[in-house]
Amino acid sequence: MDTWLPTLITDTPQAGYELAVKLSRMSVKLTQQDAAVRDRLRAEYAVDSDALIAVSQVVATHFATVAAANGYWT
Amino acid sequence: MDTWLPTLITDTPQAGYELAVKLSRMSVKLTQQDAAVRDRLRAEYAVDSDALIAVSQVVATHFATVAAANGYWT
Amino acid sequence: MDTWLPTLITDTPQAGYELAVKLSRMSVKLTQQDAAVRDRLRAEYAVDSDALIAVSQVVATHFATVAAANGYWT
Amino acid sequence: MDTWLPTLITDTPQAGYELAVKLSRMSVKLTQQDAAVRDRLRAEYAVDSDALIAVSQVVATHFATVAAANGYWT
Amino acid sequence: MDTWLPTLITDTPQAGYELAVKLSRMSVKLTQQDAAVRDRLRAEYAVDSDALIAVSQVVATHFATVAAANGYWT
Amino acid sequence: MDTWLPTLITDTPQAGYELAVKLSRMSVKLTQQDAAVRDRLRAEYAVDSDALIAVSQVVATHFATVAAANGYWT
Hints:
Six copies of one chain form a homohexamer.
Chain A: H1 13-31, H2 35-45, H3 49-69
């Protein structure tokens, strides 16, 4: 697999948040490796509020890690 | 995308809590980019106690991060 | 909005726990601003064990933050 | 309300775990104050594996806090 | 109750993971004290992917605590 | 059981993420030890967006631990 996570360090909190989103998506990719299936599932959960909130929870957990790694950008 | 997260630092705990709410909503926005769909979903989950509690959980996770970033405002 | 969170510091662990409960409820309030709807939802989830457990999870997450802010009251 | 949480400090890890269980139950008590309703709900979720696992999650979150408060008893 | 948690310290990360599994199961045991009921529930959730994933989440939370207690075995 | 977790230390963040995925799967393995059942369950949840998101949450929790163990690779 190509390098997709060279570092947890980002220039800004916002870039750190975007990295958290990427970290959230990557584990779906590793479990379901068929891009067509992932596209179909994404179309489903993008209109399902429970799923969207659950995704937010995963992002929040990763953001905590990225923020700590960056010393909270302070 | 515009800058929406320049810093995790806030003047008060309450402003930190409001930032946590913003951080929670932003990942829904990044996954479902159609504002009309988001409005419809929000109308649904605003009257669904399970969804409201799940949103609270996301806010709590982000608040932990924001509070740590601010040294708990002490 | 009025000041409802001036500090995370409390005199005792128990007061910290009560603050965690308050922090949990506040995000429901910010998402569903109609008090009558909130009262109806609360009546529903107060007899729903899954919802009560989910609320407990949110309180636990906030309590971790409040406890850390207070140096665990030691 | 009586004092039910004077300290997070316990003599042993096991006593800390028992405190985590107590912390988990207390937020249900604060949300649903009718003991008869709580007894009925508990009878239900004690035979519901999803609910039992969800309770375990709350205990795990509180145990993390209690363990940190005690310097992991080391 | 007998002593079942004398320490959070383990010799290896793997032993720490096994302790996390034990910590996860113990709170089910404390809530549902009838071993026959627990066996029946376990038979059910062992073939239920949602439940298995939820159990994994509890283990992950406890593993974080055990790992911190052991200074990450480094 | 063979040694499957000798250390939490990895060379790169990406290898740490892969270890988090492994840690997530291992607790399913310990609860459901029949490989054929696990294969069937995996086939089910690989096309179930709720389950995939729940798995992501477990990975995120383990990744936080692995990242802390590695001092965030900085």
